[in-house]
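Dear Dr. K.,

Following up on our conversation at the group meeting, I've run the structure prediction for Alpha/beta fold hydrolase from Streptomyces triticagri. I'm pasting the input sequence below exactly as I used it, so you can double-check it against your construct before we proceed with anything downstream. Let me know if the numbering doesn't match what you have in your notebook.
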Amino acid sequence: MNAIPLRGATLHYDDHGPSGGTPVLLIHGHPFNSTLWAPQAEALSAAGYRVVTPDLRGYGRSSVTPGKVLLADFADDLAALLDHLDIPGAVIGGVSMGGQIAMEVQLRHPHRVLALVLSDTSAPAETEQGKQVRNRLADRLLAEGMGGYADEVIDKMLAAYNVSAMPHVAARVQEMMRATDPRGAAAALRGRAERPDHRDTLAAVRKPVLVVVGADDAYTPVADAEEIRRLVPSAVLSVIEQAGHLPGAEQPERFNAVLLDFLATAAVGPR
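The predicted structure tokens came back this morning:
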């Protein structure tokens, strides 16, 4: 894993595949790290793509910024990382919070986006009730750590039936959650509580967009993905069966096939 100091933090990242391949930047969700994308990084790099998978500020091996980290902060970090790697534009993909960060990259740095991949995410601003829930959860994580939270949400991060059917996947997801620094998780939760409404941003997109969702996602259900599909004139929607909030981990072969097909048909394939 590589590391680079930028914007007052140290960001760790992996850079997979041939340097001349079409760049694909994949953004993990909360409270995970870049290894969430391991199956996709392997498949895409084998197909000739250059795949960049960062640990977001406050997650994985990257340094923590306590307090509050806005989606805009994450987006600007990623633009700076692309500058460091001399990548003028990339396919920007993200899951859950990572999808909202991808939307923020489109808002703040649209010239860096060749195409968007939005997995199990939603576009509207946070509700007042949601703001209270996220801030209370931030307080709890700082007071108690990640363990109890990880145990409580595993059957929502994955489809409940996959927790028992795929114990190795459940163990990997829980390990990532437990390893996250509570200060980083709390800062992201407080920032995410203030997230903007990205619906107008998406409605203005005229580049290829793939929307992916697990058929049994408890957090951002298929209806949320369908709303994004209606917003974006060029969007393609794919529902991954037998998956919940993390279809790239639960059904990696199906997810990878959808992603590779999209990249090929969107004419952003390997150069």
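Two things stood out to me. The chain has one domain: 2-265. The two ends are 25 Å apart (CA to CA).

Best regards,
J.T.
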